[in-house]
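agent> fetching stored inputs for the NAP docking request
agent> found them:
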Amino acid sequence: MKVGFIGLGIMGRPMALNLLKGGFDLTVWARRAESMAPLLEAGARGAAGAAEVAAGCDVVFSMVADAADVEQVALGAGGVAEGARAGLIYVDMSTIAPAAAQSISARLLDKGVTMLDAPVSGGEVGAISGGLTIMVGGDAAAFAKVEPLFARMGKAATLIGGPGAGQVAKACNQILTGVGVLAVAEAFNFARKSGVDAGKVREALLGGFAYSRILENHGQRMLDRNFKPGFKAWMHQKDMNIVMQEAHRLGLMLPSSAATAQLFNAMVGSGMGEEDSIAALKLLESLSGE
Ligand code: NAP
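agent> prediction call returned; pasting tokens
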């Protein structure tokens, strides 16, 4: 099976490398030469654009930023649809709105391309280790064909439902992780302002009912003041924006998500967009005094 990968950033680069290590014949394309270089050095074939990737492959993955980028990669000039050979399966693993995934999927189907939406959870660490959780929406037969490839990138791939269903699961994931980051940042800021060691608080709480991977991993990085991305604050803002747009569309009350979305808005507005979303702690601290 010939495999393509488009978008080689923090997540896409290690995911594509894991496909290469799995022995798959891989063709890649990224906008910037420096994004492509590590994959070419590792033995992948380079293409001049998305259409060229699609022309030479049976399955093409993309891992770009938001819906406008997926639209451009899939359906824009020089995009996947333009070069697609018959029977192509296109798997977008970026996080975008469910409605956008459904719309792109329907338009690709008109051009003979089957699309799966397959966003992921697990961050850069999961992408490097091949330990991602993959949430999939779309056609069951296409999912079965792509499963061996998912197995190189993730520890679990679940077909949730039809087109867009993977993105619904990812939006649920972002509610839990976004609210979780805010909760840990609030708890640490509370400890600090009370004159108590947040590290000791974390240590104690990890043994109790409030245990979470977010408290364990992100909490440690907060204590280390390590705000290097990881997952950029502007990306989490984008995801909470997706959640709030769906809440508006569906008439849903999501009070915790709304507060979290506001926090990420303020981070981006304060020039912290390129830092990891856990830098939310710094913003809370700056609003709470010494
Ligand atoms: P990133 O480091 O900014 O990488 C995104 C890559 O997409 C960039 O390398 C960029 O290419 C490429 N790209 C963007 N728009 C493009 C376009 N129109 N055409 C071609 N290439 C384009 O971001 P990331 O952290 O890997 O995130 C990628 C996706 O995964 C996002 O949807 C994010 O929400 C999701 N995600 C991220 C994490 C995480 O922890 N980072 C976790 C789960 C899910 P160039 O380098 O050539 O500019």
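agent> quick read of the result: The mean pLDDT is 97.
agent> awaiting further instructions
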